[in-house]
Amino acid sequence: MSEPRPILIADPQAGVDAHAGEIQVAIQRVLASGWYVLGPEVAAFEREWAAYLGGGHAVGVANGTEALELALRAMGIGVGDRVATVANTVSATAAAIQQIGATLDFVEIDEASMTMSPDALEQLLTASGGAIKAVVPVHLYGRPAAMPEIVDLARTHGAVVVEDCAQAHGAMVDGRAAGTFGDAAAFSFYPTKNLGAIGDGGAVFSRDLAVATRIKELRQYGWRERYVSATPGRNSRLDELQAAILRVKLTGLDRENARRASHARRYLELLADSGLRLPLPDTDTIRSAWHQFAVRTPRRVELMAHLASVGIHAGVLYPVPLHRQPAFASAESFPVSERACDEVLCLPVHPGLSTDDVDRVTNEILRWATP
Fold this sequence. Notes:
Elements: H1 12-17, H2 20-33, H3 40-52, E1 57-61, H4 64-74, E2 82-86, H5 91-99, E3 103-107, H6 118-128, E4 132-136, H7 147-156, E5 160-164, E6 172-173, E7 176-177, E8 184-188, E9 202-206, H8 209-218, E10 223-225, E11 228-229, H9 240-250, H10 253-270, E12 286-287, E13 293-296, H11 300-309, H12 335-343, E14 344-347, H13 355-369
Parallel strand pairs: 2-3, 2-4, 4-5, 5-8
Antiparallel strand pairs: 1-9, 6-7, 6-12, 8-9, 10-11, 13-14
């Protein structure tokens, strides 16, 4: 008897295969054009991505980390400024803040959503006496943070808001897209994202034309006119091939997100009595992009080993909170974040899965959980 097919935690190849013909046409169009950097494909994707988000301005950049860095710079955040974010995120969030010479201030998360706690943010902002200049909420696993409350708090205390939307393509709060609440938002198009390229890519979104104009300068050496740097900038450009592919894949984003949501609902139903702590379901006001299906258990190592033994890949996003990593070490304690990082395990939920795949994962979990 043959071994069962492995079930992957992410399958970017399936996303490419689903649009293979259209992607080939898009690639050939770029190759024939002779324009490979910051050309018509990037301009068209920027328009289409901004329209998808509900209107505003999108600027394509090289990757999600630089999208966050450039967004903060465009908002005037720089050396010595204090920036508040969560600790249970990928190190790229903190790296972007450090790259501009800003200082990290960590905020505790909400126990249920595992996103930034408005109560903890309010305490930090009040204690800082106006010293916090920017707030970076992370829409972790595709679930939007409590943006209306976070934005109100930041405004009250004189801080700007830059949303980390690397995992939240298509997530919604009160019918409004994640990424449209703050002053700016950073998106990643890394291949495993809900909207993924076939290499690195990113974008900054803002409803403010002045912010978008500033990003366009910063992404290309600070040029306002060619070869003349009006301000210090960098090279962070989205290339034409990636933009053309993203234009194709954008047409399927809602359909693929709906498939992720269907898988998530099935997990929530079938694992209700598994003993695992399950993620919050969607509601009338909160729609997750379901980038990950993050369960929690103090027996994570055992469960992960069992799943691996039967060909099911699960992932730990993220095993060590930022304030416990050498590059960002802090003496402060954030017990909710620490506990989440100790317990979280992400199950496969990508649109390349079938319903049978989801059932296979749940059956193995239930088999493991049953004494």
